[in-house]
Amino acid sequence: MFAVLLAALLEEIDQQLAEARDKRRYQLKDKRPTTIQTLFGEVTFRRNDYYDRQTGAYTFLLDAELGFDGAQSISPCLEETAVELAVECSSYRKAARTLESIVGYAVLSHEAIRQLVLEAPVSLHRPVSQRHGRVLFVEAEGLCFPPGERETSERRENLGGSRGMETKRVAA
After folding, report:
1. What is the H or E stretch that residue 4 is in?
2. Could you tell me which residues belong to the region Disordered (predicted)?
3. CA-to-CA distance for 170 and 49, rounded, in angstroms?
4. H/E element, 158
5. Engineering a disulfide at 51: which of 27, 33, 86, 142 sits with its beta carbon 3.0 to 4.6 angstroms away?
6. SS3 of 154, please?
7. What's the burial of 148, exposed, middle or buried (CB within 10 Å: 0-12/13-18/19+)?
8. For residue 158, which phi and psi values (nearest 5 degrees)?
9. Nearest to 40 by CA among 10, 6, 90
10. What stretch of H or E contains 38?
11. Structure confidence by residue, pLDDT tens digits, 68-109
12. Of 5, 14, 55, the residue nearest 33 (C-alpha)
């Protein structure tokens, strides 16, 4: 139901833009169908394609009015939501699964979300507060060389091969 209403609204806006356009500059060429992905599912509608006599390029006035990149076929709201989920979630795959649970079907892949993040304007990126702590903890797999043991050529060797297993000191 929402898709039908949004399609009718977009076609009405496009019709108003067609009537108000500079007819000497923009020549109506065709009415083309397009489908965009939104937070509420796919929306299919028809929009006017114009030839811009000044630039010699073809354009969609509706796309320019809405700030929408029609070639991408993703609504700006869906794009912003995907970028924000990618920032909030721990991975692009988790962001894709979360977006799928919101929309109801797999609307964007994790790689598509990654590309949106890379292409996102800086205004969508939130600054990270700078905090300086007195202690820095670093966790890594492998051998552990505490500062005191490095000078004495001692090291710890993991006996079990997995985290939390017993370790012993060995001379290097």
Report:
1. helix 2-20
2. 148-172
3. 76
4. strand 154-158
5. 27
6. strand
7. exposed
8. -80, 120
9. 6
10. strand 26-38
11. 776 778 888 888 899 999 988 888 999 999 999 988 888 899
12. 14
C-alpha to C-alpha distances, 14 to 9, 59, 63, nearest whole angstrom = 9, 13, 9
How do the residues of the chain divide into helix, strand and coil, expressed in percent and rounded to 5?
Answer: 40, 25, 40
Contact 148, 127 (CB under 8 A): no
Question: What residue spans of the chain are helical by DSSP H?
Answer: 2-20, 61-66, 76-88, 92-103, 110-119, 147-151
Both tokens of 168, joined, read: 């012993």
| Closest listed residue to residue 59, CA positions, set 73, 69, 74 | 69
DSSP 8-state symbol, 70: T
Q: Which two tokens stand for residue 156?
A: 């710890």
- pTM for the full model? 0.61
The label of the residue with tokens 């500062």 reads 147
User: Token pair of 160, please?
Assistant: 């079990």
Count of Cβ atoms closer than 10 Å to residue 98 Cβ: 16
Residue type, 68: F
Place of tokens 């977006």: 99
Task: Provide the residue type at 92 as one letter.
Answer: Y
Calculate what percentage of the chain has a pLDDT beyond 90: 40
